[in-house]
Structures are given as C-alpha cells and as structure tokens.
Predict the structure.
Amino acid sequence: MNRKILGFLPFLIFVLLCVFLYQGLFGNPRELQTGRLGQTMPSFNLPDLMDENKRWTEKELLGEVYLMNVWGTWCPTCIAELGYLTKLREQGVKIVGLYYEQAYDPDFGDHFDINALREEVDTMLSRAGNPYQFNILDLERSLALDLGVSGAPETFLVDKEGTILLHHTGDINQRVWRNKFLPALEELQP
Amino acid sequence: MKTRHVMLLVMILLLSATVANAAEDKYEFKNAERAQTFKELTLELRCPKCQNQNIADSDAVVAKDLRDKVVALVQEGNSKQEVIDYMIDRYGYFVHYQPPVTPATIILWVLPVVIVVLGFGFIVFRQKKASKKQQWSAADDERLEQLIAQYQRKERQQ
C-alpha cells in the first residue's frame, strides 16, 4: 500500500506543477508592481497642456479625491476609454489628465509642435468626450517616471491627502470601475 | 587541437562584443567604473512595459526613460544599489531581475536545496536497502548446497 502511494508521487508532483504553470499563463506579472502605492503624490511643477503660463504642482491637487489618467492622442486604448471616463466625470468624478508625450523626444518623433498638439487634443476631446478638468503636460515624462508609469493608459486614484490608493494599468471600463475603483472609493466614504 | 582553441577564443570574443555594444555606445561617462555600473544596471533592470526584456534590450519608451535616468543617477555618483532602490521605489520589485527575499519568495531558494537533499537521501536509502539484500550467510550457503544436491539427484534418477 505504502509503495503504491510512493509510485504515484512523481505523477502527483507533475500534476501540481502543471496546475501551477497553467495558472501562470493567465497571471499578469505587472500586477505585482507596487511602486508608489500608499505613498503620497511625488512633487512636480509642470505646465498645463493648453496654457504654458499655468503651472501645476501636487499641492494644488490636495483636498479632493481625483483620478490621474495618463494618456496621449497616439494611444488608441486611451481614446477608446475617453467615452467611459466622460461618463464618470458627469457622475461627479474629478479626473486630471497627465499628457504622456512621445514626439518631443528626438528618439521617438522627428518634430514636435505644441500648437499642433493642442489642436489635435481639442479635436479628439470634442469628438470622443472630454473627461478632464485639465491636462498636465509632462514633456520629459519625469512625473510619469516618478509615478512608475510604464505606458498609457494608466490611472491613479488619489485621496484628499494626496495618497495614491490605486495604480491601474490598462483602460478603465465598467468592469474595472466596479471591481477595482468603486470598492476603494467606498472605503474612503464610510 | 590548437585551431580548436583559437576558434573557441574567437567565439567567446564575438559573444562578449555583442553584449558590450548593446547599450552604452550613446552615453559617455567620467570613468570606466561608472560606465561599468551603468552597463550592469541596464542588464539587471527589467523593462516594465515588456514581458521579459532588460532595459538595455528594449526599444520601449519607458525603457529609454529608465536608461536615461540610470545614466543621470550614475553620473551624479550614485552607487549601483542606490539606483536599484530608486527604481524599485517607483516601479516595484518587478523592475529588478533579482526578487527580494520575503516569506512569500523564500521558497525560490529553499525548494531547490530541499529537492537536492531529498534526492541524495533517496539514493543513499536505496543503496543501503540494496546492500542489505545481498548479505550472504552460512545458512544461505547450506541451503544452496542442499538445493544443488536435490537437483543433481533428480537428474541422475531420470
């Protein structure tokens, strides 16, 4: 009897290994990213996308719960989520855009024109919906790096004290909003 | 024999040349030590956007940003560990190829050792068992003699 069990042991180990590896196929390794979670918004001083004379700092954002949405007109998924984000804005969610620019970098674009970009953004937002209170222009992607942003779209949920509660990679849709953002928001307002 | 050695040497040189040229061409450093630190870091830091590429290897925007940041930090005189901590602070442990030792990850170090120890234990156990079976006593000798005698008698009777 004992020997029979021992004989099955390699098979059992094999099955367990299969289950473990199969699971790994569907895991998202990026979810392990903790980065800035639970920390306060890193300090920044960046211009408004539409008006270079207006500058934004992390202090101006204190006092209200908001979403910071990293996006760019070059990113199709970002455009796709504009509609849903606009609905959220209509429900009273404050959304701040962090504009993630690539063409400014000589490695990724050959010319950059701020006026052309503003026009493009305007057209895009009037067509797909404008969820943003305002947009912060991060030409050098320095705030993006400090936030641990790896691409677009990404969204942060920040509370009144400036603490980063969530870091979501990918688009926001009804399912993500309901499963991830709403529970976090409900915890904030008991 | 000699040509084989030369061939091997050429192959090793070619391999190391491709690795060395991968990333640091574009950047200049004050001294060789910093250039070396930068090279090591770009090979050890993982591109957060890609599934499995280091930041030296990847063309993603974020990989370039990380390379630039590593250059800036190294040029400021930060040590290798300081740069790694800076990146982990922002991108989490995902960004470094060496996972931290925590209660959840300790299995990565312990399990291989356990498997090797168990394997050797099993081999030793089996050998002991096998050698026990082969013990041959005077009683066994006697029994063998008896059996041989029995069969010889049978054959003679036929």
Notes: Residues 2-26 of chain A form the longest helix (25 residues).
